[in-house]
Amino acid sequence: MTALISMLRNGKDDFFALLMKRMGEKGDFPAFSESVQHLDELMHDEDKNIAAITSAILSDFTLTQKVIRLANSAMYSGMGGEITTITQAAVVLGLDAIAHIALSIRFIDMFSTAAPDSAEAREELSKAILAGDVARIIVTKSIIVNGEEAVVCALLHHLGRLMLVFYFPEEWSQIQKIVRKYQVSENSATLEVIGVAIDEISQGVARNWRLPKKISHSMASSATFEETSIPGSADWLKVMANFAGSAASMLANNSSREELKRFASHYSESLLISSEEIMDSIDSAQRTVPEHVIKFESRKILGKPIDARERLASSVHEFSAALTQGIDFNSALSMVLETIYASMGFNRVVTFFRDAGMFKAKVGFGNRMPEALPDLIFSRGLCD
User: Fold this and answer.
1) pLDDT per position as a tens digit, 161-199
2) CB atoms near residue 109 (< 10 Å)
3) How far apart are CA 95 and CA 92, in angstroms?
């Protein structure tokens, strides 16, 4: 086999052009890029609200179900009672947490859909998912603010490797042979085979997708341990992403417990987390190693659900409980609308407020929402 670098006259530029071409042919990645950008804009909008982020997630039925399922998992069991709506999840876990949960699920789904039928691709995807699980368990145990951001960084830290195994499988096999034969890093072997290091591939794609700078920064494998940094900072996220990725590889390679303990001790000071907590998290992740192939839920069935009455009754009970806990008006409104939208199988739901003799749309879920809201306005006379 001829090394790819010999076929690329302009080096890195040609490589990225070829990579983007192959990604574009698949068709899944532009949609992910747009989803990431939209959620990132919502998270950094000073006027961000539950309805906007909820609407973005509700537009994808499969994503909605997975976010709710994860919000009800053991990792968040101490946060409150059973969660049945995205609005409720946002109130309980916070907007940033829900947005990052959605991003991590989007990432896994995207690569699961695009995965070629090869053991190497399934193995690398499993390592990425396992790295995300390791990070999620650690930040949950350590009660780190907006810990889901660390999970996204841990997943996307594998981006360059996944791009290679998915789109350059022959070159990836050659890279692995060099790593095994000469005991060098994958970055070095990748640089030799294609003229671009894995870190450069990850960060190049990150720029193309316009990913947040914190995520792009965490993709580098050059994490240092000389200084500690504040949990949640860009440098701390980079160390966490490197740690989670290495932990996933060690678990996949069945490393001994002594090796894992030394590894945990190595990262403990930089992460400001005790070795014991790190080992507990690794043990928990090891017990929940993900399957190689992600199974998808069936798509949404149009029409009124058979159990609509039960869904409404359950949601009324949850809404009453939320009111007793002091939920704010906007969150309450979003919860009510989402409940009606999901329980009745409607295409869209909208609430109007009276304003100087006019009725103006305030919040809506479903098809073409919320972009259609500004145009939804009518005079009071139409109601007479």
Assistant:
1) 998 988 888 899 999 999 999 999 888 899 888 888 898
2) 18
3) 9
245 is written with which tokens? 């990725």
Task: Measure the CA–CA gap between 213 and 235, rounded to whole angstroms.
Answer: 11
Q: In this structure, which amino acid lies at residue 289?
A: V
- Cα-based angle 94, 95, 96 (whole degrees, multiple of 5): 95
Compute the distance between CA of residue 327 and CA of residue 307 in angstroms, rounded to an integer: 27
Provide the phi-psi class of 116: left if phi over 0, else alpha when psi is between -120 and 50, else beta.
Answer: beta
Kindly state the tokens that stand for 134: 């390791």
Of 310 and 149, more confident: 149
Q: Within the chain, where are the H helices?
A: 12-26, 29-43, 50-58, 61-71, 86-93, 95-114, 119-142, 148-156, 159-167, 169-182, 186-194, 198-209, 213-218, 234-252, 257-271, 275-287, 308-324, 329-344
Going by C-beta distance under 8 Å and a sequence separation of 6 or more, which residues neighbour residue 137?
A: 75, 281, 284, 285
CA nearest neighbour of 267 among 258, 257, 279: 279
382: pLDDT strictly greater than 60: no
- Which of 304, 368, 357, 334 shows the shortest CA–CA distance to 85? 334
Per-residue 3-state assignment (H helix, E strand, C coil) for 258-301:
HHHHHHHHHHHHHHCCCHHHHHHHHHHHHHCCCCCCCCCCCCCC
Strands, sheet with 377-379, edge to edge from the N-terminal-most edge strand: 348-355, 358-366, 377-379
What pairs with residue 355 in β-bridges?
358
Whether the full predicted model's pTM is greater than 0.85, yes or no, is no
The domains of the chain, with CATH numbers, are 4-287 (1.10.3210.10), 349-384 (no CATH)
